[in-house]
Design a protein that fits this description.
Blueprint (H helix, E strand, L loop, with lengths): L28 H4 L2 E5 L2 E4 L3 E8 L9 H22 L5 E8 L3 H17 L4 H20 L3 E12 L5 H25 L7 E3 L2 H12 L5
Antiparallel strand pairs: 1-2, 2-3, 3-5, 3-6, 4-5
Helix pairs in contact: 2-5, 3-4
Length: 218
């Protein structure tokens, strides 16, 4: 005679994923990753959060005198105090990471220029050769990833209450408002230094995460 055990009720609406330390070399990257997927321009984690990243231009302290440097730190402290109080204990994650320079916008602009010269000045062979040499130079630099820059990032997250579409929509709305508030607050606080903040789209967010894993992109 066989006896069947009654299965415990499972609540599929709850995010119950718990990240664990995995033995090295025995698990795939997908198993180790906290990323569940993508929703619109946001990253969805297995722990039930919607995530976005803000990228800001830097302030070159080397060009400032001692008084101006002190002023920058005081402004930054004022920004932190105001937003930590407003976030009610939520921790904002700030990242300063070295990343390879992305030459693709330069390459694209020079390719556009090459086409313009070819169509408007077909007899100007020397100009086309010069532009082609620029394109080749930037493509080589882009492939080597030897030239780097400093990225200044703010990572924001919003809890997804349940595993349903309505909760996802609400989390997206709240996270967008949070991101815009932080963006406005930073740009206002550092308006004298022409600081600009941009909210990354999903592809740009995944590129940042990929650079954490594989800096040289080899």
């Amino acid at each position: 005679m066989f006896f069947s055990k009654k299965k415990a009720a499972v609540n599929y609406d709850e995010f119950d994923f718990q990240p664990k330390e995995l033995p090295k070399g025995q698990k795939t990257l997908q198993e180790m990753s906290l990323i569940q997927g993508q929703y619109n321009e946001y990253i969805v984690t297995k722990t039930g959060y919607l995530v976005t990243i803000l990228s800001g231009t830097g302030i070159n302290l080397d060009l400032l005198n001692e008084y101006e440097q002190t002023d920058v730190f005081e402004e930054y402290n004022a920004f932190l105090m105001a937003n930590i109080a407003e976030a009610r204990g939520e921790v904002l994650q700030f990242l300063d990471m070295t990343i390879p320079v992305d030459f693709k916008p330069y390459i694209l602009s020079w390719k556009k220029r090459y086409i313009e010269v070819k169509e408007e000045e077909p007899e100007n062979v020397i100009a086309r050769q010069l532009i082609a040499s620029y394109i080749d130079h930037y493509e080589q630099e882009d492939a080597k990833h030897e030239m780097t820059t400093q990225a200044h990032l703010v990572v924001l997250k919003e809890k997804i209450k349940d595993k349903n579409y309505e909760s996802l929509q609400l989390a997206e709305k709240n996270l967008y408002e949070k991101a815009m508030n932080i963006k406005k607050s930073l740009e206002t606080q550092f308006q004298h230094y022409d600081l600009l903040v941009n909210k990354l789209n999903a592809s740009e967010c995944k590129r940042v995460l990929y650079q954490f894993i594989n800096f040289n992109q080899s």
